[in-house]
Write a structure and sequence with these properties.
The chain is α/β, with parallel strands linked by helices and 369 residues long. Strands 3-2-1-4-14-5-15-12 form an 8-stranded mixed β-sheet. It has a 3-stranded antiparallel β-sheet with strand order 9-6-13. A hairpin with a 2-residue loop joins strand 7 and strand 8. Helix 2 runs parallel beside helix 3 and helix 5 runs antiparallel to helix 10.
Length: 369
């Protein structure tokens, strides 16, 4: 399929050259590891053990990108590296998630890479791994898959954020960024199938074919200065995946794929100054996103609509997806919300502590498994 020449921002050439130089890997089906799960780490030592414990699958590799290096952090790194053979810690010094994800993806072994943060706990069972891998095997044109939230519209439309009534995905999330235990419903729309083709995805996590990720330049460095947070870089990547001729899709919300968000609080919202910097980055990146995609928006959205129509029309694909994701919740109808809320509060004893300031305590993994 012909690609859309989406506008590229200033750091593109350097970013692409660095990442594409790493892209000479064996074909996906010759790799024992299918999925590399990348955890962006910043001062959350209390839950790192729990995250890694829930990623113990024979086809999963875990790369922890260590952006902080306190004594508590180092104790947590030593703990997980000595406990789990599939965990590697990649050390940096506050380069933040956009550059950290790109660096880790270049070193990944899997033909799929998942990107997540250290405030998100994976599901307490591993069934989602085979379902995600199976979805990419079933749909060769699928380039990126979201397990959190997404929309059939672009993230920003003429400088305004996507309407909430066009949001799909998980039923609820953390409300209080500092505490980590305040549940609130997101009001997402019900999906009429296990998978929906979308125009943007919200990280937490997203899964991408590694070769595609490297080929199109990884995450756009213009969306985050070194040491600063990135806003909208996940949506920007989604747009470029679609522009490259591949598809972007969102998994229906279910307990099976529920990643518990906001565990231990978020560092980027911890103080008034950090909130101010977050707001400034949001405004800057909204403008950049709009300039980058506005001219190509009609063509990109038509591709999403066409892909969705073809997906729904294929009965055999729908049956296969229903086997991979058999229990979809209907958030706006109230179906399955109690299960989400139960899973969310199950780990309040861990997530209620602000791990950006609390000393490291070696956790008892059995409490949350």
């Amino acid at each position: 399929m012909e690609t859309v020449p989406v506008r590229r921002s200033c750091n593109w050439a350097m970013n692409w050259a660095f990442l594409s130089s790493m892209a000479s890997t064996p074909p996906p089906d010759t790799l024992e590891v299918a999925l590399t799960f990348i955890v962006q780490y910043w001062h959350h030592p209390n839950q790192l053990q729990h995250i890694c414990a829930r990623l113990q699958h024979p086809r999963v590799e875990v790369i922890v990108h260590a952006d902080s290096n306190s004594s508590d952090d180092r104790a947590a790194f030593a703990d997980v590296e000595s406990s789990y053979a599939n965990v590697r810690v990649l050390h940096s010094e506050n380069i933040h998630e956009v550059r950290g994800y790109n660096r880790a993806a270049g070193l990944a072994s899997g033909w799929l890479v998942a990107f997540s943060q250290d405030d998100r706990l994976p599901p307490d069972s591993l069934g989602w791994v085979a379902s995600v891998i199976g979805t990419f095997e079933l749909l060769p044109r699928l380039g990126i898959l979201g397990l959190h939230r997404g929309s059939s519209s672009l993230l920003y439309r003429s400088g305004k954020r996507t309407r909430r009534d066009d949001m799909y995905g998980t039923c609820g999330d953390n409300r209080d960024q500092a505490d980590g235990t305040k549940w609130h419903g997101l009001g997402t729309r019900d999906m009429d199938a296990p998978l929906k083709m979308v125009a943007w995805l919200n990280i937490g996590p997203i899964v991408v074919r590694r070769r595609l990720f490297l080929h199109i330049g990884g995450f756009n460095l213009s969306y985050s200065r070194p040491g600063e947070l990135g806003i909208g870089f996940d949506a920007e990547l989604t747009g470029r995946v679609i522009a490259s001729g591949e598809h972007a899709a969102l998994v229906c919300p279910s307990r099976k794929t529920f990643f518990r968000n906001g565990c231990g609080g978020k560092a980027t919202t911890a103080t008034r100054d950090k909130m101010r910097r977050r707001s400034l980055a949001t405004l800057t990146n909204e403008r950049m996103f709009t300039m980058q995609f506005q001219a190509d928006e009609p063509q990109l959205l038509e591709r999403v609509r066409s892909a969705q129509s073809m997906l729904l029309a294929n009965a055999s694909i729908q049956r296969a997806l229903a086997r991979l994701f058999p229990s979809c919740s209907k958030c706006s109808s109230g179906q399955g919300i109690d299960e989400f809320r139960e899973a969310f509060h199950k780990v309040d004893h861990l997530c209620g502590h602000s791990t950006n300031t609390t000393p490291h305590v070696s956790p008892n993994v059995s409490k949350v498994m």
